[in-house]
Structure formats: structure tokens, C-alpha cells
Amino acid sequence: MVDIVEVKNRKQLKEFIYFPFKLYEDNPYWVPPLIMDEYITLDRRKNPAFEYCDAKYWLAYKNGELVGRIAGIQNHAYVKKWGNKYTRFGWIDFIDDTEVSKALLETVEKWAAVQGMEAVHGPLGFCDLDKQGMLVEGFDEMGSIITYYHHPYYKEHMKLHGYKKDVDWFEFEIDLNKLSQNDEERISRVSERALEKEGLSILHIKNRNDFKPYFSEIFEVLDIAFKDLYGVVELTDKQVKAYIEQYFSFANPDYICLIVDENKRLAGFGICFPSFAKTVKKHGGKLFPFGFIDILKDIKKNDTLDLYLVGVRPEYKKVGVPAAMVNYCLKNALKNGIKKAIASPQLENNHAVHSLWRFFDARLHRRRRCFLKKIKK
């Protein structure tokens, strides 16, 4: 028999956060989450998304042993914007026991029904910048700190419990060692023509203060560029402030590309980070006391680049501006000894972004999925 216990206190929240560490302790491809970020995201006092979300977290026990976890999220802004009466699930992990996975999912389904919802979908977070999607391909590929890892049996459990594919995300790995001089010159020509034709230029950044004036505008462009993507709701001012404080302090200017028009208005941006996966894994998701030191080393010297976000105003989306941003960041990556780049998850129907990789030796190395199930009230 499976016992489901709602998380009500700090001790239980710690168990909730640390459960994957036990489940994946021997898996060489799993990258742990940043513990500090997990506490902030799941705490309604610290996560601004709780202005428009409600959430509950549950633990599953069998024979007195912790065997699973799940979060239920009611994103009211999503329901209002998209008109879908859906509840989200996220932070789902469980042992290979269908009784356990069924109990966890049914708990969220019952909670959703009580709120008058018609379906459950996930894994999703509170907003689009949280981790999302269940890994369904690429189980023998190293993960990143911005994505989940899942055991291969997860997807089979989802199908068994009546969940079907709603949408997939693709992840590409770009091998920079195979980029020839001719390829580099071709990409540069395309990028230069695009910028010249549209009267745009790349803002040269030497330090954090150079792009600090554009922080808010970056998120303005992000909201505009992402507004029609799956499940996206606009970020609040408090969320924007929180993300700026949380992440931009780690930025390496070589991997921040801001493209502006003649009036210095932001036309698009690209944000990349050197990979922190190995360091986060080495330190078990903890930045302190020693993880932070290695993170600083990763920023300066690394062989892998994570391509986090690309946002472009709609009027510049199809004129080569995204290619110019990727070209700028990857040129600096080559200069700094980067051997490969990992693109963040992209929706399967986002063909404009997929087309960026035609210039490179890129392979689809991971796929993740959002599942959906209609429920009975």
C-alpha cells in the first residue's frame, strides 16, 4: 500500500527536494538541481509566481520508505490566458513501481478536479523559465542544470496511467570542432548582411554594467517573443527582478549578445552560460562553501557552452537576427576553447529556431515531453 503525505513543514520539504539524490545517486548522466534554487522556487514567500499560482507538494511512502514525490500547480494566469482548465504537475520522481506512480498522479488529478479543472498536464513548472518536460529520449546523454533527468521507465508509467503526448521539446548538441573555416565565413556573411540590411548593430559588452541598463528590456523582448509558445504566461515585475538578481551575476560578457537598432532599442538578445553541470554534480547541488569557487572557474574556462535563451522582436525574427546572435556567441566560444554547445529545449514546431542549426554539425540528442490527461470531475 502506498501512503501519500502532503508536505507541510521544512523537514518534509527537505525530503521532497533531496529525494532525487537517492533515486539517481549512481546515474552518471543525472545533474542535481541547485539546492538553493529549489528552496526559493518552492517557497511561496520567496517565489513571485505565487502571485498567480497555488501549489501543493506530496511525498509517497511504501512500507515506511520514501519512494516518490510530485507537485501540483494551479497556474491561474495560464487558465485565464489560454482558456484551458488545466492543472500542472511537476517535480515528479518515483521508483519503478506503477502503484507508486499511480498514487502520485491520482493525487494531483483529484486536487485538480476539486478546483473544477478538466485536465492535468506536465511536467511543468510555475512559469516557462522553470524546468519542464519529461525526458523520453537521450537517457545516456549528460543533462544540464536547466533540465530534468528521468529514468526510461517514467514514460511507460505515464502511458499506462492514461497520459498522452501533448507536445515535445528538442535539444540539440552542436559540435564546434567540426565547424570549418568556410562554415564560419558563411555564417558571418549571413549575419553581417542581416544586421546591415535592418540597420542593427551588436552592442559590445565588456562587463555586467554594460548590459545592466538592458535588463528590463531583455525580459520585455522575452515576453513578446515567447507569448505564443506552449503554456507561456507573461512574467510579473517581481519575477523579472528575481531572475535578474538570481542569474545575471554569473554572466560572462563573451556569451551575452545584445542587438540594438539605431536608437539603441533592443531588437533581440542571446544569453549563454558556460556549462555548470560537472561542478554542480561534483558538489551535490550546493554552491557553498566550495561549489561557488568552481562555478567561477567554469565561467572563465570550460569546454561546453549552454545556450539558454534567444529572444527577438517579431519584426526581426525572419531576417537573420537570431543567426547573428548565435554567430557572435559561438565565435567567442571558439576563441575561448569551447568544443561543444548545448541548446536549451525548443518546441518541436519551433522551426525558425531549428533552422539555426543548419549551419553547424548538430544532432538531436535529447527529447522531452509534456503529457496530458483529461480527468473526470
What would you say this structure looks like, in words?
With 377 residues, the chain is α+β, with helices and mostly antiparallel strands. It folds into 2 domains: 2-170 and 370-374, Gcn5-related N-acetyltransferase (GNAT) (Aminopeptidase); 174-367, 3-Layer(aba) Sandwich (Aminopeptidase). Helix content is 36%, strand content 27%. The chain is built from 13 helices and 14 strands. Strands 1, 2, 3, 4, 5, 6, 7, 8, 9, 10, 11, 12, 13 and 14 form a 14-stranded mixed sheet that branches. Strand 9 (256-260) and strand 10 form a beta hairpin. The longest helix has 18 residues, at 181-198. The radius of gyration is 21 Å and the shape is globular. 39% of the residues are buried. The model has no long low-confidence stretch (mean pLDDT 91).
How is the secondary structure organized here?
Elements: E1 2-6, H1 10-23, H2 35-42, E2 53-62, E3 65-75, H3 76-82, E4 86-94, H4 98-114, E5 119-122, E6 134-137, H5 153-160, E7 164-175, H6 181-198, E8 201-203, H7 208-211, H8 215-226, H9 237-247, E9 256-260, E10 266-274, H10 277-282, H11 291-300, E11 304-312, H12 321-335, E12 340-343, E13 346-347, H13 351-354, E14 362-374
Parallel strand pairs: 4-5, 11-12
Antiparallel strand pairs: 1-2, 2-3, 3-4, 5-14, 6-14, 7-12, 7-13, 7-14, 8-9, 9-10, 10-11
Helix pairs in contact: 6-12
